[in-house]
């Protein structure tokens, strides 16, 4: 009887042990899934721009996945991006210096890296006599939005030539168009005299002979050799989960290096994935090469200086009254250097 009870107890203990083991086996993957779920993130990357190439390449080539990140690409306008950065629902975005005034106004984000050089042009009709900023005095300029980067580019260009870009001074008039194709139609119809535009639309129209370019910020002063687009990180995410921001930067830098060294393959990935509004492969390769996405070697050599570019554009925007904070103070507050490989 005692031996039977002992066997029964031992059997019950084994059963309990197996049950506990099974429970642990069930809990462990759930815990892992829970941890992995924390890395489910949304990144704006469906806006059709060619210059957002590192996002598409990092996604298609699995660089985000290699970093343990479950990334979903979403569509988001500038205001949605700012809201997401501010509350931490979007950890990182690519954006231009149009975000600079927003940071000064309280959007909780900082510049953490450079994405690429210029991707904006100001174009006019092919038969136009307009060739310089001085020629735009008293005329109408199309932009995507007041306060957007093409508007700021045109403003900096005009102000450097001694022409006020302030609407109330009536030296130039800016007209917003939410759709770049409508902006081009307005230019063709004579409703505006010049159009400040993102690529690839401006370059596609130029190649077709429908416009001529009077400013290309990739090659023309005061923008030549400077960053056009930066990477902005949410301060909330940077404080709560800095490892996630570092992982994202590693994926972005890997994609930038790939584009730098394999522009043709990068363009094929982008066109096949229908990420950009461009079908001209030759033109896309030309543009994506001109944007100067930094390679690992360029980073190591110090060939570009992100902090210096932030300071430069902060000074430009301060000089024309778009920022109230001097460039030195602004840069110290809103640029954060991160070395994800270190």
CA-to-CA gap between the ends? 68 Å
Reported for the largest beta sheet, the result is: 5 strands, mixed
CATH class of the largest domain: Alpha Beta
Shape descriptor: globular
Q: What's the tally of helices?
A: 15
- State the CATH architecture of the largest domain: 3-Layer(aba) Sandwich
Helix share of residues? 40-55%
Strand order of the largest sheet: 7-6-8-5-9
Order of helices and strands: HEHHEHEHEEEHEHEHEEHHHHHHH
Radius of gyration: 25 Å
Strand content: 15-25%
Describe the structure.
- The chain is an alpha/beta fold.
- Helices cover 49% and strands 16% of the residues.
- It is built from 15 helices and 10 strands.
- It has helices at 2-37, 53-60, 63-66, 78-87, 100-104, 149-160, 180-189, 201-207, 235-240, 242-261, 263-272, 281-290, 296-301, 306-319, 327-334; strands at residues 40-44, 70-74, 92-96, 109-117, 120-124, 140-143, 173-176, 194-198, 212-216, 227-234.
- The strands form 3 sheets. The protein has a 5-stranded mixed beta sheet with strand order 7-6-8-5-9, with helices on both faces. A 3-stranded antiparallel beta sheet has the order 3-10-4, sandwiched between helices.
- Helix 6 links the parallel strand 6 and strand 7.
- Helix 2 (53-60) crosses helix 11 (263-272), helix 11 crosses helix 12 and helix 14 (306-319) crosses helix 15.
- The termini are far apart.
